[in-house]
């Protein structure tokens, strides 16, 4: 069994078509078909139902797919381990991040590189907390910064700081917005719940504590687009961490709620046998997190 055979198999399974898989792999379709047929003979299994125009996995193919993916991931990790060895003591850090960490991330990486001169940092930035947690669990990331992460038996969650959230409201509502219930009639714009269920529920709980359920508003993909669009137009409100709450529009006001709403941020890594680069990152991060912020 060859790695390329597994790669071809997984690609066809994901795309459901031999021709499209060949295009993605930049080879001719006959080569894909030949390698998968060879794999099927070697395994003694029929992996695809070829009686339709699309390549559909057979029950045997469905069962084999997660094993093939796991084997490919292990090969990727072996290659990364070889890169670590080639880099000597410096090593490689695969780190998940989030938009908005800004100066904090810069300071953390500066401190990390002081501990690991020459280390290679591979940064992956995404808003999806579940995706980052899954990547740490799968070994695709060594560590990740996550807002309001849930507890997990295989993950060590190290709390770093709490960001106060500000209410971003139409300017004409600024004088009363600190009382959260004054916004009950206005839709709330926020990211989709599946992007970060815990953070979503934290905001919902704050609204409930103020005496109302928030009305669904636009889904936030880009905060500035929402601020300068529907918030400035008076159609909705949203929340942002205080350290990134800014806009060039006089039509938007940022108001601290009367009852503070705090969004926790943590560094998450594997509880058992984390890589040494992740341990050094944790030390660097805790040092920066405990350093008083300059005014």
From TrEMBL:
<dbReference type="GO" id="GO:0003700">
    <property type="term" value="F:DNA-binding transcription factor activity"/>
</dbReference>
<dbReference type="InterPro" id="IPR000847">
    <property type="entry name" value="LysR_HTH_N"/>
</dbReference>
<feature type="domain" description="HTH lysR-type">
    <location>
        <begin position="1"/>
        <end position="58"/>
    </location>
</feature>
<protein>
    <submittedName>
        <fullName>LysR family transcriptional regulator</fullName>
    </submittedName>
</protein>
<dbReference type="InterPro" id="IPR036390">
    <property type="entry name" value="WH_DNA-bd_sf"/>
</dbReference>
<keyword id="KW-0805">Transcription regulation</keyword>
<dbReference type="GO" id="GO:0032993">
    <property type="term" value="C:protein-DNA complex"/>
</dbReference>
<dbReference type="InterPro" id="IPR036388">
    <property type="entry name" value="WH-like_DNA-bd_sf"/>
</dbReference>
<dbReference type="GO" id="GO:0003677">
    <property type="term" value="F:DNA binding"/>
</dbReference>
<dbReference type="Pfam" id="PF03466">
    <property type="entry name" value="LysR_substrate"/>
</dbReference>
<comment type="similarity">
    <text>Belongs to the LysR transcriptional regulatory family.</text>
</comment>
<dbReference type="Pfam" id="PF00126">
    <property type="entry name" value="HTH_1"/>
</dbReference>
<dbReference type="InterPro" id="IPR005119">
    <property type="entry name" value="LysR_subst-bd"/>
</dbReference>
<keyword id="KW-0804">Transcription</keyword>
<keyword id="KW-0238">DNA-binding</keyword>
């Amino acid at each position: 069994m060859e790695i390329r055979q597994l790669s071809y198999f997984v690609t066809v399974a994901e795309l459901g078509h031999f021709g499209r898989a060949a295009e993605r792999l930049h080879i001719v379709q006959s080569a894909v078909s030949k390698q998968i047929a060879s794999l099927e003979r070697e395994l003694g299994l029929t992996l695809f139902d070829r009686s339709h125009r699309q390549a559909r996995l057979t029950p045997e193919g469905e069962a084999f797919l997660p094993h093939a993916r796991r084997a490919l991931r292990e090969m990727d990790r072996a290659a990364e381990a070889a890169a670590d060895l080639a880099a000597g003591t410096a090593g490689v850090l695969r780190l998940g991040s989030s938009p908005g960490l800004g100066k904090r991330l810069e300071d953390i990486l500066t401190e990390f590189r002081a501990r690991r001169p020459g280390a290679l940092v591979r940064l992956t930035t995404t808003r999806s907390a579940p995706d980052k947690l899954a990547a740490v669990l799968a070994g695709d990331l060594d560590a990740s910064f996550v807002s309001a992460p849930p507890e997990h038996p295989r993950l060590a969650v190290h709390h770093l700081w709490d960001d106060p959230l500000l209410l971003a409201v139409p300017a004409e509502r600024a004088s009363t917005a600190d009382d959260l219930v004054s916004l009950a009639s206005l839709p709330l714009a926020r990211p989709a719940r599946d992007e970060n269920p815990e953070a979503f529920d934290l905001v919902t709980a704050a609204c409930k504590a103020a005496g109302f359920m928030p009305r669904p508003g636009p889904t936030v993909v880009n905060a500035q687009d929402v601020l300068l669009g529907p918030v400035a137009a008076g159609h909705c409100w949203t929340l942002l961490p205080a350290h990134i709450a800014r806009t060039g529009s006089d039509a938007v006001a940022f108001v601290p709620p009367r009852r503070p709403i705090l969004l926790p941020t943590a560094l998450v890594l594997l509880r058992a046998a984390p890589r040494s680069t992740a341990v050094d990152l944790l030390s660097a991060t805790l040092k920066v997190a405990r350093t008083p912020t300059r005014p």
